[in-house]
Specification:
Radius of gyration of chain A: 38 Å
Number of helices of chain B: 5
Order of helices and strands of chain B: HHHHH
Distance between the termini of chain A: 97 Å
Strand content of chain B: under 5%
Largest sheet of chain A: 5 strands, parallel
Strand content of chain A: 15-25%
CATH class of the largest domain in chain A: Alpha Beta
Structural class of chain B: mainly alpha
CATH architecture of the largest domain in chain A: 4-Layer Sandwich
Number of strands of chain A: 20
Strand order of the largest sheet of chain A: 2-1-3-4-5
Oligomer: heterodimer
Helix content of chain B: over 70%
Low-confidence stretches of chain B: none
Radius of gyration of chain B: 15 Å
Number of helices of chain A: 18
Mean pLDDT of chain B: 87
Structural class of chain A: alpha+beta
Helix content of chain A: 40-55%
CATH architecture of chain B: Up-down Bundle
CATH superfamily of chain B: HPT domain
CATH superfamily of the largest domain in chain A: PPM-type phosphatase domain
Mean pLDDT of chain A: 87
């Protein structure tokens, strides 16, 4: 027999001869022995000296072995202290009682040394096994607690970054996301552009846990940073893709849908890379236009082969864009069947109250799968009047002492630059050095953006704005824009900015020229200002937001002014 | 008598296990047995009889008193069922059996004096 580590063993036995015999056998086998002549003594000895194992006679005066076993098991708690009943009991009822009170084995009289040693060894193995299990359980619990704490910290840090957006403040966003969705790789961001448009990103990183959450930080920073500076979807997408491609391992990427909702133009621009179809819900017709994935996820393609082309759809007031993560359609039932797009569309079809859609989808998922998943993300953004949306005021940190008040600058952007470069963020940043203009940065940006896109699209690219009169023309317009821009060989857009001080403030003149054919200024200017047809918005917007807007040189040259009063 | 009453192999095994405590074990067994017999003779309830018979059976078996173990077992099993006369007869038989094996254990005791 292999030598084993000596144990401390308690013998509870009322017969002095048997007690002496058993003690001698155990001592010869190398163990430490404690003795008790009845159950009460046994419980007392156990409490005092915590033996590893107990040999317990069933029939004893004062307190019998059954009661003593029950009390010792209670004292031992989770630790396994094996109890071997010493008995020549032959009734099965009494043997069953031994097991009921927690006995682990029996040893019959007369004692047999070999069997006793074997039983002690077996019980010791069991005892050690339980000890190991408990230790490992505690270790797992500690690791789990540690992991949860890490997630709490990561979530707190991330919430600081993620909630710098307008997700919770904007009145036109509804979303549903588990608080720890981040650790399933789900990411939802929203922010206003300087022009008052809204950018929304719903992303889904591959993987789970911290690895899935890590990529969210740089992605959110690019999203917020570039949106705040006035970059459009195309530049933001290029930057996000390049950054993720650079930092993520090859098997990690981020499926994402990025939206730009323009309240001024009443349109939504969409880029979907690998996410489930989103839906544009037209309230008037009840139609739901799918917004399917047209691209590979972010972080897959090299910057050279990345495709940032977007689609643009017109929206009416109250129309909604609905996005969802794959947790919705990939929810499984008990037979591993997927919830699927068809069931989602059945929920759409049955939906009567647009505001109840989330709850109806959740209910359908519960009815289907039986258990809730925590990687279900849904967001719905509706188009409101610009007046109902109030972008947060920008915060500037400089004192204003070095504000430039008398200067002018001219740029000429030529064909190769026009293809890919968006000069608006730079121009805006320059203009916002002028403190007096900061209060009207939204209007300034909208007008600047409008003048620039008019010059580029109608001027340089020669696109006919009347195409945008209906929804199908709207889509064709943007397809055509992308084609012509790709083929562009020559042409220019010039931007002249002039800031001059006045007695009680200052004046900015924006002057934009293009190389296009121009347009019939008289006819366009004759339209009423409140005309909100899709095709006419640009010009009327500029006239509403800026001062003294005027077009010369057959529409090839546009001027508009912004004035401000001296700051207190 | 011998082999049907006391198992010699058990005694030599006990001596090997107990080493110098063997005489002490014999002393304790003999003293304990007197106590058990007293209880058996005077027991006034079935439960007391069963308990005493059970304990006596256990130590007898450990000490190799084969016939004594068998008689105690009979008493433990039947104490609640048999008429009083039969029980008294069984107790007397246990008494006689112990009286007959006792000299054998005393002889063992003499053979191996305690080392004090």
């Amino acid at each position: 027999m292999q030598p084993m580590e000596p144990l401390t063993i308690l013998i509870a036995e009322d017969s002095a001869a048997d007690r002496l015999l058993l003690s001698s056998i155990l001592r010869r086998q190398g163990h430490e022995v404690l003795t008790a002549a009845n159950g009460a003594e046994a419980v007392e000895a156990f409490g005092r000296q915590q033996p590893h194992l107990v040999l317990m006679d069933a029939m004893m005066p004062v307190m019998d072995g059954f009661e003593a076993a029950r009390q010792i098991k209670a004292l031992a708690g989770e630790t396994l202290v094996p109890i071997i009943f010493l008995t020549s009991l032959s009734e099965s009822e009494a043997l069953a009682r031994c097991l009921e009170v927690g006995g682990d084995d029996f040893l019959a009289k007369p004692y047999n040394q070999v069997i006793l040693a074997a039983k002690i060894k077996a019980m010791d193995r069991l005892r050690r096994l339980q000890d190991t299990v408990l230790r490992q359980r505690d270790q797992i619990a500690r690791h789990h607690e540690y992991l949860l704490n890490e997630q709490r910290v990561a979530k707190a840090v991330f919430d600081k970054v993620a909630h710098s957006g307008c997700l919770n403040a904007a009145p036109n966003i509804r979303y549903l996301q588990s608080p720890y969705a981040l650790f399933n790789g789900d990411l939802l961001l929203a922010a206003f552009t300087p022009a008052g448009d809204m950018h929304v990103l719903l992303g889904d990183f591959t993987g789970h846990g911290l690895p899935a959450a890590v990529g969210a930080m740089p992605l959110a920073e690019v999203f917020y940073g570039m949106t705040a500076k006035g970059y459009g979807l195309a530049e933001t997408l290029r930057e996000m893709n390049a950054k993720l491609k650079r930092i993520l391992p090859v098997d990690m990427f981020c499926c994402a849908t990025l939206l730009c909702l323009s309240f001024q133009r009443r349109s939504v621009e969409v880029w979907n890379g690998g996410m489930p179809d989103g839906y544009l819900h037209c309230m008037a017709s009840g139609e739901r236009i799918p917004l399917p994935a047209r691209h590979l996820p972010l972080g897959v393609l090299s910057p050279e082969s990345f495709d940032e082309r977007t689609e643009v759809f017109p929206m009416a007031l109250g129309d909604r864009v609905f996005l969802l993560s794959d947790g919705v359609i990939d929810t499984c039932d008990a037979n591993e069947q997927l919830f699927g797009v068809q069931r989602l569309q059945q929920v759409f079809a049955a939906n009567r109250q647009a505001d109840a859609l989330f709850e109806e989808i959740e209910q359908a998922l519960r009815d289907f799968g039986g258990e809730a998943r925590d990687d279900v993300s849904m967001v719905e953004i509706s188009l409101l009047e610009p007046a109902q949306i109030t972008p947060p005021a920008l915060v500037y940190s400089d004192s204003g002492q070095s504000c430039p008040l008398d200067w002018s600058v001219s740029f000429e952007f030529r064909a190769v630059t026009l293809k890919r470069f968006n000069p608006l963020p730079y121009l805006l940043q320059l203009l916002l050095e002028v403190h007096g203009l900061r209060a009207q940065s939204g209007a300034l940006y909208s007008v600047l953006a409008e003048l620039y896109s008019n010059a580029l699209e109608h001027g340089v690219l020669g696109l006919d704005s009347s195409l945008k009169r209906n929804a199908s023309g709207f889509a064709r317009y943007y397809q055509e824009r992308s084609t012509r821009l790709g083929e562009l060989q020559e042409g220019y857009v010039r931007v002249h900015l002039q800031v001059t001080p006045t007695d009680d403030g200052g004046c900015l003149t924006i002057h934009v020229e293009d190389s296009g054919k121009g347009f019939d200024v008289e006819r366009v200017m004759a339209r009423p200002l409140e005309d909100i047809r899709l095709s006419g918005r640009g010009v009327s917007l500029i006239r509403q937001l800026g001062r003294n807007a005027r077009w010369t040189d057959n529409g090839r040259s546009a001027r508009v002014e912004f004035i401000w009063e001296a700051l207190a | 008598m011998d082999e049907t009453h006391v198992d010699r192999n058990v005694l030599s095994a006990l001596q090997e296990v107990m080493e110098e405590s063997y005489p002490e074990l014999l002393d304790i067994f003999l003293a304990d047995s007197e106590e058990r017999l007293k209880v058996l003779r005077t027991a006034d309830s079935g439960d007391r009889l069963v308990e005493a018979a059970h304990s006596f059976k256990g130590s007898s078996s450990n000490m190799g008193a084969v016939r004594l173990t068998e008689l105690c077992h009979q008493l433990e099993q039947q104490a609640r069922a048999l008429p009083v006369n039969d029980i008294q007869e069984l107790v007397r038989e246990i008494d006689r059996e112990f009286a007959s094996v006792r000299p054998l254990y005393e002889a063992e005791r003499q053979r191996c004096p305690a080392k004090i």
